[in-house]
Amino acid sequence: MHLTPDEIELWAEGLLGAARTMHLTECSLCLAEAEQERKVLLELVALPRFAPSARFADLVMAQVKIRAPSGEF
Questions:
Q1: How far apart are CA 29 and CA 14, in angstroms?
Q2: How many CB atoms within 10 Å of residue 50?
Q3: Distance separating alpha carbons of residues 24 and 42, to the nearest angstrom
Q4: Residue pair 7/31 in contact by the 8 Å Cβ criterion
Q5: pLDDT, tens only, 10-50
Q6: Angle at the Cα of 61 from the Cα atoms of 58 and 64, rounded to 5 degrees
Q7: 23 near 10, Cβ under 8 Å?
Q8: How far apart are CA 22 and CA 72, in angstroms?
Q9: What pLDDT is stored for residue 73 in this prediction?
Q10: Are 32 and 23 in contact (CB under 8 A)?
Q11: How far is CA 34 from CA 13, 24, 51, in A?
Q12: Calpha distance 56→63 (Å, rounded)
C-alpha cells in the first residue's frame, strides 16, 4: 500500500515509523513524491520571515468601517 499524503509529510519531517519508511525502499513512486515533499519543506524553511510594522494594526483598523445598527431585526 502506497504512503498517504500525511505519511509522506511525516517522513519529510523525520517522524514516520520505520515500518512505513521501509516502503520507500521498495516503491520509487512514493520515494519520488516524498523527496519532492521534503524539497518543498526545505524551500519553505529557507524563505525570509517578515513581520508587520508596529503601525500595521492601526493602519488596518483605520480602514475598517463599522455600520451603525439599524434597530431592525
A1: 19
A2: 5
A3: 19
A4: no
A5: 998 899 999 999 999 999 999 999 999 999 989 999 999 98
A6: 160
A7: no
A8: 65
A9: 61
A10: no
A11: 10, 8, 31
A12: 11
Radius of gyration of the chain, Cα coordinates, nearest whole angstrom: 23
pLDDT, residue 63, reads 93
Query: Considering all CA atoms of the chain, what is the largest pairwise distance in Å, rounded to the nearest integer?
Result: 68
CA atoms within 13 A on the CB side of 55: 3
User: With contact defined as beta carbons under 8 Å apart, do 55 and 27 qualify?
Assistant: no
> What whole-number distance in Å separates Cα of residue 10 and Cα of residue 34?
9
**Predicted confidence band of residue 66 (pLDDT cuts 50, 70, 90):** confident
Q: Identity (one letter) of the amino acid at 73?
A: F
Residues 6+ apart with CB under 8 A from 53: none
Query: Using an 8 Å Cβ cutoff, are 12 and 38 in contact?
Result: yes
